[in-house]
Design a protein that fits this description.
- This protein is mostly helical.
- Helices cover about 70% and strands about 0% of the residues.
- α6 crosses α8 and α11 runs antiparallel to α12.
């Protein structure tokens, strides 16, 4: 059988370009380079000042982080996944949940199947990309049950970091389906970034 990695040619990526701005590209950068979060944290005071001048208040990241670090109730921590959190508070929450992986993973998996909340989707994806258990098989088994297209797109990103090359044809099919069905939402960028990561992992040349 032909090695699926051979499907990822320069021509293929030329025909499916990476967009300058997309949720998948940002998530990919944050998973690949955690220092991006640190950079965002460093810019928060400046951003908070700029947005305050326009009458928009960004969340108080320091207060959020304290609340996360003080909270021990699993239910409350789980509910925080749905909230818009500053990057450092979100990072603290995910680190705390990852320490309770055996307890939280089944809940995370149930959430990603049904939620329409973008914060919850992104946090579930970060958790599944970083947890000790490889969720690739679970994702493939339950993919069609995932209610929200954005969640399906982002789960493809998890496959990019955790699955083997056998998943390449699946990701290519998802990319094509998103291009046809949801061209206005850039959902195809999730499987596309996943394919870039697989190529990097298995053919770093």
């Amino acid at each position: 059988m032909k090695d699926p990695i051979r499907l990822l040619t320069k021509d293929y990526f030329h025909r499916h370009p990476v967009k300058a701005f997309s949720a998948a590209r940002l998530a990919y950068s944050m998973l690949l380079m955690p220092e991006v979060v640190t950079c965002l944290e460093d810019k928060l005071p400046e951003l908070r000042e700029m947005t305050a001048m326009r009458g928009v208040q960004l969340p108080d990241s320091a207060q959020q982080k304290v609340l996360v670090e003080q909270e021990e109730d699993a239910g409350q921590l789980f509910r925080m996944l749905r909230r818009p959190l500053a990057p450092d508070a979100c990072g603290a929450l995910l680190r705390k949940l990852l320490k309770r992986e055996a307890e939280m993973l089944p809940e995370i998996q149930r959430m990603i199947l049904k939620t329409l909340n973008s914060n919850a989707i992104e946090n579930c994806v970060y958790f599944m990309a970083k947890c000790k258990e490889n969720c690739s098989e679970w994702i493939l088994q339950h993919y069609e049950e995932v209610r929200e297209p954005y969640a399906r797109s982002m789960l493809c990103l998890v496959l990019g970091f955790r699955a083997g090359t056998a998943v390449i044809p699946f990701l290519m099919r998802q990319l094509e389906q998103f291009e046809k069905q949801c061209p206005q939402h850039s959902f195809e960028q999730g499987p596309l970034m996943a394919l870039y990561e697989i190529r990097s992992r298995f053919r770093p040349d």
